[in-house]
Amino acid sequence: DKTFSTEVSLVAGSNVVVTVATDSSGNVTSTSRTVFYDVALPEINFTPADGMTFSDVTAITVEGTAVDASGITSLTINGVMAVTTDNGGGSFSFSSDLDLEQCGLAVCQTSIIVVATDASGRITTETHNVTLLTNLAPVIADMSVTPDSISIGSAVTAIAHYSDANEGDSHTAVWDWGDSTQCDSSIDSHCSMSNS
Known about the structure:
Shape: rod-shaped
Mean pLDDT: 86
Strand order of the largest sheet: 4-11-10-6-7
Distance between the termini: 95 Å
Largest sheet: 5 strands, mixed
């Protein structure tokens, strides 16, 4: 058996390397190998675009393409493997529903991280940051009634403090006295609301 080695210049993309062996009797054997010279990282394009805002949603669709001449071997969205479709020409499309984590605030920032790996092991990471607006329910902080002790038929002053992270909301308040009677701030002048 004989061994040999040599350096071969490659161009970006596919290269066919042909080896030809000839013995002293003139017999010839040849073989070829295709070598892919990868010089570029995968390119990722996807929506939603960086900086987009969503209101009162729990999931969004992340879709786009990853392009690499050597092929895409894996693609993840926020660490979860996504299914890709080979469109030919090194282009692979993907679409996946992403559940959004609720942060418990009226305004939340969420990152969508797409990672593509090509056949040569080269990795590209693309991050889009989106804003999630959630209309949260008002929170009652405390309530007080004065005076502490009264006789039947006497007036009392009841005060409740509440907050709402959604500053643009309008509000009404209903006092339920526990005896099937109520005081509604939207219709009863004795039951009022203020922004103080």
